[in-house]
Every structure is written in structure tokens, then in C-alpha cells.
Specification:
Elements (H helix, E strand, L loop, with lengths): L1 E4 L5 H9 L5 E4 L3 H8 L10 H11 L2 E3 L7 E4 L15 H13 L4 E5 L7 H12 L8 E5 L9 H7 L2 E5 L2 H12 L6 E4 L1 H31 L4 H8 L22 H8 L5 H11 L1 H15 L8 E4 L14 H11 L7 E3 L11 E2 L2 H6 L3 E4 L4 H5 L8 E4 L10 E2 L1
Parallel strand pairs: 1-2, 1-4, 2-3, 4-5, 5-6, 7-8, 9-10, 9-12, 10-11, 12-13, 13-14
Antiparallel strand pairs: 6-7
Helix pairs in contact: 1-3, 4-5, 8-10, 8-11, 10-11, 12-13
The protein binds ligand SAJ.
Ligand SAJ binds next to helix 8.
């Protein structure tokens, strides 16, 4: 039986996937509300295919609890935030979860860390707590790192199809854990050592962050000299070895806006390109704000309450607001005492999270003269025609209407 610890964005789908593929699973989370929601047969966030997967897992007998279970295999999937000042990983949740596992687990148990951790975290924080407990690594406790790669918005498909990495001290233990993942994963599963697995995960997200920063920098250069960045990227990408990503209002989510900082925090004198890239991405919300004021001025619009922000989530078709560029913009406006003036609307966020949030798309449109498209949800793509007549500032390059302002 596998005890999955932490039933959030990664732990829950992983637990459901294993359960629906014949593995006996009990999911544990310390959040009583979350566990009781799951026990009532409801999922805790929206994701394509998740509800169906949940029903299959329930039929297969998955159970949920706030207690750690006595078993031979644990998968720890708890958050790993970063310290905003030191830029280093904050391992508190992982450490606490492993400590709790160590309280109950039998001799010979395997603890799989699935949470993203910076290279060396398991050596620095996890091995010592196992030893402090008087347990011998490789005999009493086996450690594995099996980072995930799934993208919010397409998690269920990617869980089934992506290749995976398993880092283990011991090949035989690696093979044992591989079998659990292979119960559902149709991709290739590579076994390597723990440090390599830690590094690959962070490097993958850093690769994307640096490439998004490049696109964002191009957007700034093109804006400065009045060139069309999207046309330029489109043409460049016709070169067989060029694949530039898209500029946007900033980078949100809990991965690409966080993980690369681990490398900057641990290797400050070496990770220069990464550091600059993260700063470039972090400055995008302010770049967008300046552009809003410019466009307002050009159109003689002075009243911020007639401006509407479309989209609160960090990207399209998800209900996740973590580190969202819109929230960063509102935060920055609050410092200039204008944060609670603009209207805000997002079809995925049904409860009030920010001032002046509206919940009906048509009422939202009626209350504004200028709309800022910050997230490209399918809803807005299908309703573009309703924006005719408004001043439109499109930060995602999704609006085909003539006269639309872009980054
Ligand atoms: N973004 C851009 N321009 C682009 C692509 C993305 O501005 O061309 C922005 C998005 O709008 C969003 C942010 O970047 O604000 C991140 O979105 P994303 O879709 O690129 O990635 P995440 O954070 O949802 O998921 C990433 C994925 N990592 C990679 O693609 C390397 C996913 O595979 C990982 O599992 C996930 O991080 C994670 O958990 O680490």
C-alpha cells in the first residue's frame, strides 16, 4: 500500500492515478477541510479529466485520512516555497512530512520525495533527520526522489504520457518504485541518483523561465522601437533551429516563477543568466502597468474605474492564482493607492478575492471602457466580438480585432 502525503495539485492526481491503476492508496493531508471534501466525493480544484479520474479511483477503493499510515512506501508531495530574501528553498513542509512518516513507518520503508527540491536538499535536510531518529539509511529507511513534470491544465494526460525521472540511492529500490509509477505512466522512466534527479527538475523549469525572459526582453526592445514582436517571433520560429516562446504579462504559477531562484540562491556568483532572467520576468507586471497608463493617456481616459482586468489566474484555463501577474499588478497599484479602482473579472474565480471583482462577464464589460486581457481563457477567445468598441490592451496576443494594443 502507498501512503501519499500531501493532496494538493500534484499529490492528489498522483494518488488518484495510482489507485485507478490497481495500486492500493491512502491519501493523507493535515488539512481536515480538504480531507473531508475528498471524503464527500468532491475534488478540491478544477482540472481537465480530474473529476472522472477521481470517480475511477473511488471505485478502485482509494481512501483519505489526516493520519499517516503504517506501510512500506510513502510518496511525499508537499509544497516547497522559497525564501523571498535568501532565494533559497524553504524545506519546512518536506522536513515535517518526513519527520511524521518516521514516527510511524516500519523498518525497511521507502520514502519517495515528489516535491520539487533544490539540488542537495535531500542530503542537507532529509538524510540528517533520518539519522537523528537513529535509523540507518539503506537499511531502515530508503530514500527516493521522483519529481513530477505535469503541466496544470493538462495534468491527467501528462501524468499518463510524460517521461519521468527516479533518483534513488539503491538501484533495486529505484526499480521497485518505478513499478508503481509504471502502473500508469506510458512514458520512459529513467533511474538515476538522487542529486541528479533534484537538479534535472529545477533545470527543466529554469530552461523555460530563461526562454520566457528572452521573449519578454524582445517585447520590450520591440516596444521601444515600435516593432511587432509577435510577427518577429513568428518569422524567427520558421528557422529550423529557433523556437522562441511568447512574451506575456509576467510569469506566475508555483514552478517557473519559483524553482529557478533555488539555483540563484545556492550559486549566486555563477547563476547570472538565470538571475537576470528571473528579474526580467518579475518586472513584466510593472511594464504592463506603464503600458496601461500610456494607452489611457493616448485615448484621453483618466478614470481607472473604467478599466477592467480580464483574468486573475496565472495562466489560461486553470483556477490557480498563485504568483499570478494580475495579483502582482494589483499589489503594485495598491502601493500607489489605485489598486482598488480597476474592475477585475475571471470566470474561474467564483468568490471575491480582490476589490471590485465582478462575477458576470456582461456586467463587467458594461462597466468599463478599456479592457486589459491578462489571461487567454477559452471563454474570452470565444467571445472576442463582445469587445468591439472598447479600448483593448491584449498582453497575450489573442485578440484579432483591429486597433487592439499589444505589449
Ligand atoms: N508563459 C509565458 N510565455 C510562454 C509560456 C508561459 O509568459 O511562452 C507564462 C504563463 O503565462 C505562466 C507561466 O509562464 O504565467 C508558467 O506557465 P507554464 O504553462 O509555462 O508552466 P507551469 O508553471 O504551469 O508548469 C511548469 C511546467 N514546466 C515546464 O514546462 C518546463 C510543468 O511541466 C512542470 O511540471 C511545472 O512547471 C512544475 O510543477 O514544475
Amino acid at each position: 500500500m502507498i501512503n501519499v502525503i500531501g493532496l494538493g495539485y500534484i499529490g492528489l492526481p498522483t494518488a488518484l492515478m495510482m489507485a485507478s491503476h490497481g495500486v492500493e492508496v491512502i491519501g493523507t493531508d493535515y488539512d481536515h477541510n480538504l480531507v473531508s471534501t475528498l471524503k464527500k466525493g468532491k475534488t478540491t480544484f478544477k482540472e481537465k479529466g480530474l473529476d472522472e479520474l477521481f470517480q475511477e479511483a473511488l471505485k478502485a477503493g482509494i481512501k483519505f485520512s489526516t493520519d499517516y499510515q503504517v506501510t512500506d512506501t510513502y510518496i511525499v508531495s508537499v509544497p516547497t516555497p522559497y525564501n523571498k530574501f535568501s532565494k533559497k528553498i524553504d524545506p519546512t513542509f518536506v522536513v515535517k512530512a518526513v519527520q511524521s512518516v518516521l514516527e510511524v513507518c516500519p523498518k525497511g520503508a521507502t520514502i519517495v520525495i515528489e516535491s520539487t527540491v533544490s539540488p542537495g536538499t535531500i542530503d542537507k535536510y532529509i538524510r540528517p533527520i533520518v539519522k537523528d531518529k537513529g535509523k540507518k539509511l539503506g537499511e531502515d529507511i530508503h530514500l527516493v526522489h521522483a519529481p513530477e513534470r505535469i503541466i496544470p491544465g493538462n495534468m491527467v494526460y501528462e501524468l499518463l504520457h510524460n517521461n519521468r525521472t527516479i533518483g534513488a540511492d539503491d538501484k533495486i529500490i529505484g526499480e521497485k518504485i518505478k513499478k508503481y509509477y509504471a502502473s500508469f505512466c506510458q512514458g520512459e522512466i529513467i533511474i538515476t541518483d538522487i542529486r541528479t534527479a533534484e537538479m534535472t527538475k529545477v533545470v527543466e523549469n529554469t530552461f523555460r523561465a530563461v526562454n520566457i525572459a528572452f521573449a519578454n526582453e524582445l517585447a520590450k526592445i520591440c516596444r521601444y522601437d515600435n516593432m511587432d514582436v509577435y510577427e518577429i517571433i513568428k518569422i524567427c520560429n520558421m528557422h529550423p533551429r529557433v523556437n522562441i516562446l511568447q512574451p506575456g504579462p509576467g510569469v506566475g504559477g508555483h514552478c517557473i516563477s519559483v524553482d529557478p531562484w533555488f539555483l540563484v540562491g545556492d550559486y549566486p556568483s555563477l547563476a547570472k543568466v538565470i538571475d537576470e532572467s528571473m528579474k526580467t520576468n518579475d518586472k513584466m507586471p510593472d511594464f504592463v502597468l506603464n503600458r496601461i497608463y500610456e494607452i489611457m493617456e493616448e485615448n484621453g481616459l483618466t478614470d481607472l474605474s473604467r478599466v477592467g482586468f480580464y483574468g486573475l489566474t496565472y495562466k489560461e484555463n486553470v483556477d490557480d492564482m498563485r504568483e499570478s501577474p494580475t495579483l502582482q499588478m494589483l499589489e503594485s497599484m495598491k502601493r500607489h493607492l489605485s489598486g482598488d479602482l480597476v474592475k477585475v473579472y475571471d470566470p474561474y474565480i467564483k468568490t471575491d478575492k480582490v476589490p471590485n471583482q465582478m462575477h458576470d462577464f456582461d456586467d463587467f464589460l458594461d462597466s468599463i471602457d478599456m479592457i486589459v486581457l491578462l489571461v487567454g481563457h477559452d471563454e474570452i477567445k470565444q467571445n472576442m466580438i463582445k469587445l468591439a468598441g472598447k479600448i483593448i490592451f491584449d498582453t497575450r496576443n489573442i485578440c484579432p480585432l483591429v486597433g487592439t494594443y499589444r505589449l
